[in-house]
Design goal:
single chain, alpha/beta, Trp Operon Repressor, Chain A, five-stranded parallel sheet, two-stranded antiparallel sheet, elongated
Length: about 220
């Protein structure tokens, strides 16, 4: 998989891809992540990528010209399955969507900043809009990192135990059951005996029951 992330603040998004699972995924050659500096496609002495909004109003808007040039350049080098704009009013990101996107080969994630992007970018250049939730961040960089992380960890070979991703919350419509590790007793707090029994079938039944009850209590909307 190849993911190109377009941003006017590349340093803001570099660190998540330089450690842990995301770094190992790149080292294994399972994914390539390119962070594209939008200013490389700007013109003028100071390489501006934003300007005031027509009609007035507070805040600056990312200009269409550098974004169009950047996307055109990327598309001239390879075919992209999706060109995604990270937007507060986009489609709500979910595990189902992460699963779907993990099957793609090439993705562009466009990070908005300031007051967003020129509307013509959304009308003519992107194929999909994704939101993390009903709130506003300073820019799309953190959201893009979250989406990339959720996608990359699903690629076969990224996790050392591939069954790990299959037992994550939301994969089966439920949140994950509680988990424990050693010691079996700490400050008088004991691990449930069933988990120490070695009876795998009963353990799996217990986990499913716990997942269902936890979902019923914390996220009843998922059971609908």
């Amino acid at each position: 998989m190849h993911i190109s992330i377009i941003t006017c603040l590349p340093k803001l998004i570099e660190s998540p891809f330089n450690d842990s699972i995301l770094k190992r995924a790149q080292s294994k050659g399972l994914v390539t992540v390119d962070i594209i500096d939008l200013r490389n496609y700007a013109t003028g002495k100071h390489k501006p990528v934003d300007d005031y909004a027509f009609g007035g109003g507070a805040g600056m808007v990312l200009m269409i010209e550098p974004i169009d040039k950047c996307i055109a350049d990327l598309k001239s080098k390879k075919s992209y399955d999706e060109i995604i704009y990270m937007s507060p009013d986009g489609e709500r990101f979910s595990q189902v969507m992460a699963n779907e996107l993990s099957l793609k080969q090439n993705l562009i994630l466009l990070c908005g900043h300031y007051k967003g992007v020129d509307e013509r970018v959304r009308e003519h250049l992107i194929t999909r809009e994704i939101s993390l939730g009903d709130y506003v961040l300073s820019g799309g960089e953190l959201a893009a990192a979250v989406v990339a992380d959720a996608i990359i960890r699903l690629i076969p070979g990224v996790l050392s135990d591939e069954t790990s991703a299959l037992t994550d919350s939301f994969q089966d419509g439920l949140v994950a059951p509680p988990v424990y590790t050693r010691p079996a007793e700490y400050n008088g707090w004991r691990v449930p005996e069933i988990l120490l029994s070695g009876h795998q079938a009963k353990i799996e039944d217990w986990k499913h029951e716990q997942a269902f009850e936890r979902t019923k209590k914390r996220r009843p909307d998922l059971l609908k």
